[in-house]
């Protein structure tokens, strides 16, 4: 049997991570969770890889959430926090990530898509925080308040009803929409656009966004200035203006 999670380390610095259990709607079974932990660790520690795309195999589901059968069999109450591989939470990552949502992203599927920095969705994708329909809860959804308006978040969590990809785009959950057969190309195009930036500047930009969601205005400004210092003082900060003045493409070194 093929691996539960596929890892494609591309020569252009993009890692494509694919949940590979379409027959179970790519639910977060023990083998998928283990595969994701391994994949994220490999991505973080490979210096040649600078951005990752997370997607699902098949056309029906990105990830249908947790393995409900496992929860029944084990009598699981509150899942341990470290049970699920959530980028920037239970997984320590310093590089940007993109969710390429190819189908249903329900419950834990929404959770891991939400955790990625950017999101591209197929026009046939659907999203739901469906825990109220199965007697579970969704504490992981708390950061959603920084992405979408409160009233919309309230309705999504209280009803558990799915929303379409177009609605997800409309409320700001999704960055770009793509026809199903164009999903990965659109995600790769977005990743390539990010990679065109200076590596230290991209890292500082990501940290600035995250700091702004964690802190008040004054504290975030101070922390963001500190996070940006390395980019300002690096060689790429001189290379960028020099390349612009010479009307040539910059040659980033990440230094």
From TrEMBL:
Keywords: Lipid metabolism, Lyase. It comes from the Bacteria. InterPro entries: ClpP/crotonase-like_dom_sf, Enoyl-CoA_hydra/iso, Enoyl-CoA_hydra_C. The keyword Lipid metabolism applies. Belongs to the enoyl-CoA hydratase/isomerase family. This is Enoyl-CoA hydratase-related protein.
């Amino acid at each position: 049997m093929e691996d539960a999670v596929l890892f494609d380390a591309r020569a252009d610095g993009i890692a494509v991570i694919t949940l590979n259990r379409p027959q179970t709607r790519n639910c977060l079974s023990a083998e998928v969770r283990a595969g994701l932990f391994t994949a994220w660790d490999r991505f973080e520690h490979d210096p040649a890889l600078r951005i990752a795309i997370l997607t699902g195999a098949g056309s029906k589901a990105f990830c249908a959430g947790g393995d409900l059968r496992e929860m029944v069999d084990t009598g699981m109450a509150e899942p341990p926090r470290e049970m699920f591989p959530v980028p920037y939470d239970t997984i320590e990552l310093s590089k940007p990530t993109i969710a390429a949502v190819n189908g249903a992203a329900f419950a834990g599927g929404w959770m891991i898509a939400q955790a990625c920095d950017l999101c591209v969705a197929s026009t046939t994708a659907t999203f739901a925080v469906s825990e109220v329909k199965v007697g579970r809860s969704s504490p992981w959804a708390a950061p959603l308040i920084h992405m979408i308006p409160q009233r919309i978040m309230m309705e999504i969590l209280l009803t558990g009803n799915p929303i379409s990809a177009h609605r997800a785009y409309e409320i700001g959950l999704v960055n770009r929409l793509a026809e199903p057969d164009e999903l990965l190309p659109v995600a790769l195009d977005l990743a390539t656009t990010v990679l065109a930036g200076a590596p230290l500047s991209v890292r500082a930009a990501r940290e600035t966004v995250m700091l702004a969601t964690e802190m008040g205005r004054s504290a975030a400004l101070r922390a963001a200035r500190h996070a940006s210092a390395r980019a300002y003082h690096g060689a790429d900060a001189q290379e960028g203006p020099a390349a612009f003045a010479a009307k040539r493409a910059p040659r980033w070194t990440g230094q």
